[in-house]
Structures are given as C-alpha cells and as structure tokens.
Amino acid sequence: MNKPTLFGYGLTTKAIAKKLGGGCTFFDDKTEKPYTDEENNQVLPSHLFDPENSQLEVTTPSVPPSHPLIQSAKHLLSEYDFFAKEMPFSIWISGTNGKTTTTQMLTHLLEKRGAVSGGNIGTPLAELSTNAPIWILESSSFTLHHTNIASPNIYLLLPITPDHLDWHGTPEQYEADKLKPLLSMKEGELALVPKGLKLPKTNAFIVEYDSAKFLEEYFSIDSSKIRFKAAFLEDALLALAVTKTLFDEIDYETINAFTLDNHRQEETRDTLGRTWVNDSKATNLDATVQAVKGYDDKFIHLILGGNDKGADLTPLFELMEGKKIHLYTIGANSEKLALLSKKHHINFTACETLENTINTIATKLTKDEVALLSPAAASFDQFNSYKHRGEEFFRFVKSL
What we know:
Elements: E1 5-7, H1 11-19, E2 25-28, E3 35-36, E4 42-45, E5 57-59, H2 68-72, E6 76-77, H3 79-82, E7 89-94, H4 99-110, E8 116-119, E9 134-138, H5 141-146, E10 154-157, H6 165-168, H7 171-179, E11 190-194, E12 205-209, H8 212-218, H9 230-247, H10 252-256, E13 266-269, E14 275-278, H11 285-294, E15 299-304, H12 314-320, E16 325-330, H13 334-343, E17 348-352, H14 354-362, E18 369-373, H15 386-398
Parallel strand pairs: 1-2, 1-5, 2-4, 5-6, 7-9, 7-10, 8-9, 10-11, 11-12, 14-18, 15-16, 15-18, 16-17
Antiparallel strand pairs: 3-4, 13-14
C-alpha cells in the first residue's frame, strides 16, 4: 500500500500513518512550524503543500471542499476510498440524527456473525480488521462528499434535515452528499432511504420509508415486541430490517438487550419518584422534535436552549403548539426562544441557567409528568460539551 500525503493531523489520518508504519507526510492547519512526530511522520503547515510533489492524497473527513488543500489536490481520496479494495461486505449508515444508535444496534445484532463497526462512530477504518466478514460504518456527510470510489453493499439513510450548511454550502448539496452512495451501488444491493428525497439514478434496490409502521409492514417486524419508542424504535426497525434481509432473522431478544448511550433520552427518578430525562445529546432541531414526540403522552416540562448556530427552530415550535408543554429556556439563544414562544403561544419561563431551571421545575413537577432536557442546541455557551451538560443535569437533579 503506497504511503499517501495526509491532510489534517487527526484521528483518521494518524491511524492510516500508523497502519503504514509511519514515515508519512501530513499537512495540517494547526501546525505552525514543521516537525517530526514519534512515528517518524513529517507534520507540515498546510500552506506548504505542493501538489506537484504528491502522487496520492487522503483527507481527514472534516476538511471542507473549499479548503486550499482540497482545491489543489490532484489525486484525492477519502478514508473509505483508500480502503475500498480491502473493504469486506459493508453496511453504511448515515442521517442527520440517529446514525450512531443505529450503527450500534446493528453491530449488537451482528456481533455473533463477526461484524465490526467503525467510521464516524469513533474507530478509523485503518483499525478495523479486514478479516471481519462485515464492516458497519457510521458515515458522515463529510466522508460521503469526499468518497468517489468505495461503495456500500447496503446503505441505510435515516431522516435528514439541513445540517452543516457552513460546510456543504446549501441544503441541496447536503442532501446530494447524503444520497451519493446510491450513485455507485450495484444491482440487487439494498438502500433504505426516507421518502420524499430527490433520488439520483441508481442500480440499487431502493426501499423508501416514511414511518415506523411502513418498516414494520414491509419487513414483517412486530414492533410490540420491541422495547424502544419514537426515534429509537425506528433505529431498531432499520437495524432489524438488515438482519431480516441478510439472514431472514428478527432477533427481538438481542435488540431489546441493547443499551442506549448516555445522554440520549436517559431517564432517572428523583427522591419523590418523578421522571427526569437527560437528552443532552439532542444538539439540533430534529433530535429534539423526536424527543418531544416520544413523550407527548405526558405533560412535558421542556428545557431548551444553548448555541443553536442560527438554526430555524420554527418546526419545533409548530409541533409544540397545542401540546401539553411548558418551556424553560437557558443559554445563548434565550431571547430567540422567548420570541418564538410568544409567537406560537407556548408557555415559557426564562431561567438562564440549567441549575435555576431544575430548581424551578422541581416546584411544579408531578409523578405523571416528565422533565425533559432536550436543548436543540450545542452546549458550548455554558458547558464544555453535551456530556458535561448532561452530567450537570443529573447532578442538579440528585441534589434536590
């Protein structure tokens, strides 16, 4: 395997260099002066890249298409392209929300068959065994944009809403990048995609779905035997659709044994037996919409706010109209949330901080209601990460 020039000194590219025994050349925006790392790799400032001295380039997924490195590269590959010849049977999973959970669920179901998972879920392809019979790859829109050679045998696309527009440029380009794997798929290969998208010409066998009910009926799955609900039910159905397709198997016992990640609709109860839900990982609109739908059989005390990066939250407020919800606002976009609440006639309380919010809700919450932290925003205005925000949420609840 030839040693490529590597763009970005990150997890993906460092794993490639390590697999190749070091001695690679990196170009990185954060590097000010050239140096040699412990693996004997040269790490250089990005502006020193000369395309005439490079025969092959592999980029870290997050480097945008407008970057001078991408613009000047003549032999650019994605991580997926670089390993295309070694890649075994592969299942790619993408979408705006839920792709990590679906990847984890499907890996949980197929572990007994030797499947391994990687990609955006945290394990670079360079660290996956090429002897594994199945690779399950969480695939970001960044990776898909840069990929032109590799192709999945099965592609699961979860519902998408415009995201990372500062990177992709337009909602149309974001959607096109999410659908890009269809362009190279072969006849008989399965692609499960949300209904209503502008599909490109493809040889894949396309199944367009619009609901959990459709997936149940199409793949003969009994959702009453699945313990998950709302968006997580759909994730489980998609994972089971793959095992049904490949092995004519629907393993309810194994899917029900799957444990969701922390900070994803993670429930706890206080000393009075009241339900508090930590959905801090809901950092965008669609994730919060799914959380609200999942608990709309109860009165919801919803904690919303943070750095929403200018997102249009109108669809969320339209959803909340007429529902049994009281909103509590925190963080940088509190004023924006107040205006939307007034416009859509949503009762709200401005609390500024998470601690104030929990103390306020604690004076009102009853056992048949739910307090839901699902911010629809990033956490960096007040916290180190969504994980930190979720941990603080639980700490404040436990101190009541």
